[in-house]
């Protein structure tokens, strides 16, 4: 059973940066794919970015390409989401997710384990 806990959210102004962390425990993460999703107020949850832990394959939603970077720290079992040039439309609850497959996917239902989520608010 993998447990995920997000941290690093908060309130920032448009154009600023924020780094989210997702600490994972309860499993060997070498074969896992870790992903970030987000859910804006009144919207469905949507894919943001993913990284395959060992091979470092990455995948990004078009809306965040060039602004967000996903990375992992094997030693700390932690995955990060560096968010630069934030926009008000990035305001959402951000969720960390994980599952055992070798190629990242945007498909929400593919991920078995989820964190509780953390709020990110970007003011204009």
Strand content: over 45%
* Structural class determined from secondary elements: mainly beta
Radius of gyration using CA atoms only: 13 Å
Tell me the overall shape. globular
Total of DSSP H or I helical runs spanning 4+ residues: 0
The residue fraction in helices comes out at: under 10%
Average pLDDT across residues?
A: 93
Number of DSSP-assigned strands: 11
Main sheet, how many strands, which sense, barrel? 7 strands, mixed
Uncertain spans: none
User: What is the chain-wise order of helices and strands?
Assistant: EEEEEEEEEEE
Distance between the termini: 40 Å
Describe this structure in words.
With 124 residues, the chain is mainly β. It has strands at 3-7, 10-13, 18-25, 33-39, 46-52, 58-60, 68-73, 78-83, 92-99, 113-114, 118-123. Strands 2, 4, 5, 6, 9, 10 and 11 form a 7-stranded mixed β-sheet that branches. A 4-stranded antiparallel β-sheet has the order 1-3-8-7, with no helix packed on it. The chain is globular and about 40 Å long. The termini are far apart.
């Amino acid at each position: 059973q993998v447990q995920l806990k997000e941290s690093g959210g908060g309130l920032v102004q448009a154009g600023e940066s924020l780094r989210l962390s997702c600490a994972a425990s309860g499993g060997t993460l070498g074969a896992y794919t870790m992903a970030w999703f987000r859910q804006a107020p009144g919207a469905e949850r949507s894919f943001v970015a993913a990284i395959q832990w060992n091979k470092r394959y990455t995948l990004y939603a078009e809306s965040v390409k060039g602004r967000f970077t996903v990375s992992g720290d094997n030693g700390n079992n932690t995955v990060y989401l560096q968010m630069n040039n934030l926009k008000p439309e990035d305001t959402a609850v951000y969720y960390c997710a994980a599952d055992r497959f070798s190629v990242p996917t945007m498909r929400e239902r593919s991920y078995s384990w989820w964190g509780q989520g953390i709020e990110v608010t970007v003011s204009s």
